[in-house]
Amino acid sequence: MNDTVDKLVVFLAKRDGIDKLVKTFQYVSKLVNWHVEGTHPDMAKRFKHWEVSAGLSRKAFRTGRFLTGFNLLRRNPGPAGPLRVLAVLANAGEMVYFFFDHFLWLSRIGTLDADLATKMSFISAFGEAVGYVFFIVADFLLIKEGIKAERKIRRERLEKEEEDDDDKGIVKKIRVDRVMRLMAVAANIADLIIALAEIEPNPFCNHTVTLGISGLVSAWAGWYRNWPS
């Protein structure tokens, strides 16, 4: 119990930890609002306020977040080749998303002209979608490389006909990395669906259940990735 509490404290001390918790509040309240809207309008209104408040809080808390992608590229752009190109494009899209998200937040709270909200939402969501597509492709390429490396180690093991502790450690590391990348892919696909709902509204992406489930998948996948080991 104490260990869980300690991990929770560490998790909530991170910017991403707080974001995933508030994101959970945002999309749970969205689903509850949809569920009780027809039968308990007063309760639905309260949960709608909670959803809007959580969404705006997350935008405020992400102030300056667009610099994260720039810093990652500046300090560690990755090895030369396709993965570096994908990293540049993915982080560029994410920087556009977070940068214009500031103006979307300011227009929604009334500091800027409210008419800017639609335009800022489109630009922000478009950058977000572009970034997620390249992040997903990069993660799949890295997962593929990990699978190849694991198979190579297994073949070498069979040839040597003996267990190697170093090889076990490498395989374990590859598998942990694969799980983390699959969680990232799940989160990015879920967020891509939410972004598409802003870019090109359609019955599937804009349905409350689709948005609610997508938001929770993204939040909980991020929760898993950020939870202290």
Set out the fold topology:
Blueprint: H1 2-12, H2 15-36, H3 41-61, H4 66-75, H5 82-108, H6 116-160, H7 165-199, H8 208-226
Helix pairs in contact: 2-3, 2-8, 4-5, 5-6, 6-7, 7-8
Provide a descriptive summary of the structure in words:
The protein has 229 residues and is mainly α. The protein has one domain. It is 83% helix and 0% strand. The chain has eight helices and no strands. The chain is globular and about 70 Å long. The mean pLDDT is 91.
Structural descriptors:
single chain, about 230 residues, mainly alpha, about 85% helix
Low-confidence parts, pLDDT < 50 over ≥5 residues? none
Shape: globular
Q: Tally the helices: what do you get?
A: 8
Order of helices and strands: HHHHHHHH
Instruction: Give the end-to-end Cα distance, rounded to a whole number of Å.
Output: 15 Å
Structural class: mainly alpha
Largest sheet: none
- Spatial extent as radius of gyration: 21 Å
Would you count the extended β strands for me? 0
The amount of helix comes to: over 70%
Subunit structure: Homooligomer. Interacts with ARC5 and FIS1B on peroxisomes.
Pfam families: PEX11
Function: Involved in peroxisomal proliferation. Promotes peroxisomal duplication, aggregation or elongation without fission.
GO cellular component, one term: peroxisomal membrane
Short description:
Pfam families: PEX11 (PF05648). By secondary structure, the protein is mainly α.
